[in-house]
Design goal:
heterodimer, A: Rossmann fold, Phosphatase 2c, domain 1, six-stranded mixed sheet, six-stranded antiparallel sheet, 10 helices, 17 strands, elongated, B: alpha/beta, Transcription Regulator spoIIAA, 4 helices, 5 strands
């Protein structure tokens, strides 16, 4: 009679580095004989007298190899294997199944139910030694693979935490929706395609009735785009502009930025719309560099796209960017977008496009600005058929009431 | 869609026949193809864009970079027959200011001779 749940360990568990084999067999004589043989081969041996005790030992000791009898009461060898293969913690265990008659059908069934290899009960000591060594080789490879995957997983987690922390920082560079100065309301939305985005925008009151604002788009995505954008945002700070450009003129600012930010060695660059809003003179002054996403929705209902066909920043160091001026009347709305909003394909590949964006803005008419910004993004999502934009999406809407 | 390129020597230059999309995914391939031609001492690279369906923002950057690199080695880059959508993207970014666009090979080559 087997002693249920009996597990004996032949050596002190402190003997680290010696490969361990678990022998599970309900016949004490056969079990002890095999254990003795394995010990003579230099292995540390654990024994279990039935399947259930074997599973417990496997879970507790994590041996390098398990040698398992097929015929056992209650939990037999194949059922033992099935339980191991369904257990995420144990499923990579190496199992050598013993049978007294090696019929091909039986071997096929055993392999199908989860054994890795077979050992005949009549095997010579050379064969036992060879099969055990083969099992050990496989176990070592599996272990290395598991260690490597675990290391990759941990590194990936660390990287993602870093990215999220950088993304939170980028968010702090963006202005919050709300009143900017009395009479000017801003609503914005920002959806980076990866954790980190290359689009940035800002609006800064330079005085009570004079605002500077921009929306820029770094080509590419991810970490490098975000780093380049935040360095550009630093250049666009008021104190830096006064020092480097010495002027509020959008054209002069972009002409200087074009020299400061050449193409990277991988051909990365910025597009940008930069504007200043003079509330006293009711004038919008702006310049663009390869950036099409900017429009003025007049209170009258007219939509005026502000894009000029011109080079993105860094394409040609001799480019001069020119300021355009537009008169503003109370009730006008200014929208700055990144192209990620309207260059979204539907399932057939057709882009949503500027014409549909234009039509959407007109249709929303004088609905509250928050609704227009949210509704426009919702329309783009409806067009592409899913929530995840392929490129960074930034929108800044401005309502000028004075 | 992947990109395929094939070089074809012409008098005083090389035509790069391009097929597929000039996008972020294909940027290294395009860069390598063009750099190989430049390092062989080519002074006039003609990009045949007739079979390029799409150019994204990364592709535009690659075109600007190629044009700058050729300029540094006293060369120039021209473009042949971009499709209408690609032509529109290029004109929004004013690329033809850096890379002249031609409708046929003879014109591109003739322009090069005048410039020389």
């Amino acid at each position: 009679m087997p002693t249920p749940a009996a597990v004996t360990t032949s050596c002190n568990a402190a003997e680290d580095g010696v490969p361990t084999i678990l022998v599970v067999d309900d016949e004490p004589t056969a079990r002890l004989a095999l254990a003795a043989r394995l010990k003579r081969l230099g292995y540390r041996v654990i024994q279990a007298g039935d399947g259930k005790a074997g599973l417990e030992a496997l879970r507790r000791e994590r041996p390098n190899l398990t040698i398992l009898d097929w015929m056992m009461p209650e939990l037999d060898g194949p059922s033992f294997c099935e339980q191991v293969r369904h257990d995420p913690e144990l499923q990579t265990s190496q199992i050598l199944m013993m049978t007294s008659h090696d019929q091909p059908e039986q071997i096929a069934e055993g392999l199908a139910r989860g054994a890795d290899d077979f050992l005949s009960k009549a095997a010579s000591k050379y064969e036992i030694s060879a099969r055990v060594q083969a099992g050990m080789r496989a176990a070592t490879l599996v272990r290395r693979l598991k260690d490597a995957s675990e290391e990759i997983r941990q590194k990936q987690e660390a990287l993602e935490r870093e990215l999220q922390s950088a993304a939170r920082y980028v968010e702090t560079l963006l202005p919050a929706s709300g009143p900017v100065v009395p009479g000017v309301q801003m609503v914005r939305t920002y959806r980076p395609s990866l954790a980190l985005g290359g689009d940035l925008f800002n609006i800064v009151p330079w005085s009570d009735d004079f605002l500077g604002l921009y929306l820029l788009d770094a080509s590419g995505h991810g970490v490098s785009a975000a780093l380049r954008s935040s360095s550009f945002a630093t250049f666009l700070r008021r104190d830096s502009l006064l020092r480097h450009v010495g002027s509020n003129d959008p054209g002069a600012i972009l002409t200087e930025a074009n020299k400061q930010f050449p193409l990277t060695e991988n051909g990365h660059y910025f597009t940008i719309v930069f504007a200043s809003l003079d509330l006293r003179c009711h004038t919008l002054s702006y310049a663009t560099a390869g950036h099409s996403g900017a429009l003025l929705h007049r209170r009258s209902g007219a939509v005026c796209w502000m894009a000029q066909p011109n080079l993105p920043l860094g394409f040609d160091s001799f480019t001069t960017y020119v300021t355009v001026e537009l008169p503003i009347t109370p009730g006008d709305r200014l929208y700055l977008f990144s192209d990620g909003l309207y260059e979204v394909p539907d399932p057939t590949g057709e882009l949503w496009g500027q014409a549909r964006l234009d039509e959407t803005i007109r249709r929303f008419g004088e609905r509250p600005l928050t609704e227009v910004v949210a509704g426009t993004v919702a329309e783009a999502i409806r067009w592409q058929g899913h929530e995840q934009f392929p490129d960074d999406v930034a929108v800044m809407g401005l309502e000028i009431a004075v | 869609m992947p990109m395929h390129t094939k070089e074809r020597p012409v008098p005083n230059g090389v035509i790069l026949e391009m097929t597929g999309d000039l996008t972020y995914a294909n940027r290294e391939q395009f860069k390598t193809a063009v750099e190989t031609i430049r390092q062989k001492g080519c002074r006039h690279l003609i990009l045949n864009m007739a079979d390029v369906r799409f150019v994204d923002s990364s592709g535009l950057g690659m075109l600007a970079l190629v044009s700058q690199n050729f300029k540094l080695s006293q060369g120039k880059v021209s473009m042949l027959r971009p499709q209408s959508y690609v032509r529109e993207i290029m004109s929004l970014a004013n690329i033809q200011k850096l890379i002249p666009v031609y409708d046929n090979e003879q014109d591109a080559l003739a322009e090069q001779q005048r410039a020389a």
